[in-house]
Amino acid sequence: MSRKVKILLAEDDPNLGAVLRTFLISKGFDVSLAQNGKTAFEKFNRDTFDFCIFDIMMPELDGFSLAGQIRKLDKKVPILFLTAKSMKDDVLQGFSTGADDYVTKPFEMTELLARIHAILRRSDLHSDKIKHDFEIGLFKYDPETRLLRNSGDEKKLTTKENQLLHLLVKNRNEVLDRRIALEAIWGEDNYFNGRSMDVYIAKLRKHLKDDDRIEILNIHGQGFKLLVH
Description:
Elements: E1 6-10, H1 14-26, E2 30-34, H2 37-46, E3 51-55, H3 63-73, E4 79-83, H4 88-96, E5 101-104, H5 109-123, E6 134-136, E7 139-142, E8 147-150, E9 153-156, H6 159-170, E10 175-177, H7 178-185, H8 191-207, E11 214-219, E12 223-228
Parallel strand pairs: 1-2, 1-3, 3-4, 4-5
Antiparallel strand pairs: 6-7, 7-8, 8-9, 10-12, 11-12
Helix pairs in contact: 2-3, 6-8
């Protein structure tokens, strides 16, 4: 089952944000608009996005910092920056934080659309190829409905189980930083939240135990790693 490409748009100018959102929706995208970096990061942690468009100069959290935080949680989601400056240093800083491309304001909507499609082609994320489910060994996992399926058996994950599994899946075969995951899901890295996360890791292991090729490893002093052998 395919779906629309979901874009997280962060733009603090309400007029430009509304125009961009309306334009992208008219071109077949599903767009969620945030008016500052902090709200955008919260939206990213609550939902599933296929593409990010971030203004660089934003209150609460600037575009570079936002991209840096997101890259710690998801190393693959494409990020495109909108910048009011054409300075070389800004462009280089953007790429150093993991950006895929940038557009300098003012820009034509057709240019933005062309760059989005070019990145999607490179990322193999055409709208007709995007599916709801992730495959984890024998399991099908849909983070939007919070469903984990295996041979007719279906589990509805709790919100925190879903958020944690989603981060593990997006960072499959790589270490998910414990501190970053705690701040993203629980809002704070402290002892009690850390113990809570350990409980949820144990719950996820139990949910996935029917496939012995799946492991969620504790990486001492770092975090967790989801492996499918």
